[in-house]
Specification:
The chain is built from eleven helices and ten strands. The chain has 286 residues and is α/β, with parallel strands linked by helices. The protein has a six-stranded mixed sheet with strand order 6-7-8-3-9-10, with helices on both faces. A hairpin with a 5-residue loop joins β1 and β2. The radius of gyration is 20 Å and the shape is globular. The structure holds adenosine-5'-triphosphate and magnesium ion (MG). Magnesium ion binds next to α1.
């Protein structure tokens, strides 16, 4: 069995009326990883997420070259709905993806389309609601749910298909910072419970506690990819990519360079604060 969840080889893509948006992408997303995708606005991150699920190019048309393999299979010629059972995607405009009146119907919709029996659908609906912290809310109307709850409901409808890979494109764009942090904490819990592969596109400050791998996209190219720590160092070494790094890591890598020290692999402010107090308090003068 391969350890690669998604493999993109020599991939180029242009929308119907655009120049090349993705250029010579060679990328591997490791199975079981929590991979973060980041990069400047317009870099091609959303297009890349869509390419991982076949929406690009199948739905949008356009010109492309190269291949995308999902869980060992080339997706060329495969139906988007078929791919969706193995690779779930949640987009930033999540409200526009909602189609039903009640929470239960919203989740059931996709499953019924795939021909699951009513018993199986009921089972999966209640499991998915429980997974996202909305147990027993089958009969809630969508307008009885808060923005954050509706977002979790959408996550539940993707999870109900039990995909092996879950792709989220700026899934918290409509939430305040606390809402965003709590959605990511929930996502991480689900990632650990279901041992799935997660790919998230967003600001790395939010993903720092969780990501195992990092991909930086700029100008349609995958400029850096790999395990988080090595990828972060590679990005730090390239002036134009630095600003994408989490703030804590800009501080950490900047200090390491300036004082020729090696600091821990900080994932939280608390960890950073603790180490800095130990190392720099009193002694090391700036
Ligand atoms: N449907 C489309 N038709 C034509 N061009 C498009 C289309 N969607 C996106 N583009 C262009 O493709 C490029 C990459 O867009 P994309 O949305 O993938 O970037 P992004 O990295 O997700 O940006 P952001 O951080 O703003 O979400 C941009 O130049 C954009 O204008
Ligand atoms: Mg985008």
């Amino acid at each position: 069995m391969s350890d690669t969840a998604i493999r993109i080889t020599d991939f180029y893509f242009a929308y119907l009326n655009s120049d090349l948006v993705l250029k010579d992408i060679n990328l591997e997303i490791q199975k079981g990883s929590f991979t973060a995708i980041a990069g400047p606005s317009g870099a091609g991150k959303t297009t890349l997420c869509k390419a991982m699920t076949g929406i690009v190019p199948h739905y949008y048309g356009g010109r492309y070259h190269g291949s995308v393999e999902v869980l060992g299979e080339d997706i060329r010629g495969r139906k988007i709905s078929e791919i969706a059972m193995r690779v779930g995607i949640m987009m930033d405009d999540y409200e526009s993806q909602m189609v039903s009146l009640t929470a239960g119907e919203e989740i059931a919709f996709g499953l019924l389309n795939h021909g699951f029996s009513p018993e199986e659908v009921d089972k999966r609906v209640s499991q998915a609601l429980a997974d996202v912290g909305l147990p027993g809310r089958e009969n809630y109307q969508l307008d009885e749910l808060s923005g954050g709850q509706r977002q979790r409901l959408l996550l539940a409808s993707v999870l109900a298909c039990r995909p092996e890979v879950l792709i989220l494109d700026e899934p918290v764009s409509a939430l305040d910072p606390d809402g965003a942090r709590s959605l990511y904490a929930l996502l991480y819990k689900i990632y650990q419970q279901h041992r799935m592969t997660v790919v998230v596109e967003h600001d790395l400050n939010y993903l720092l506690p969780y990501m195992t791998d990092l991909v930086l996209i700029s100008g349609g190219e995958a400029r850096v990819q790999g395990r988080f720590e090595a990828a972060a160092r590679a990005a730090f070494a390239q002036e134009d990519l630095r600003e994408n790094l989490p703030e804590l890591w800009l501080v950490k890598l900047g200090l390491e360079e300036k004082y020729q020290v090696r600091l821990g692999s900080w994932r939280t402010e608390e960890e950073a604060e603790k180490e800095l107090l130990q190392k720099f308090q009193g002694g090391g003068k700036a």
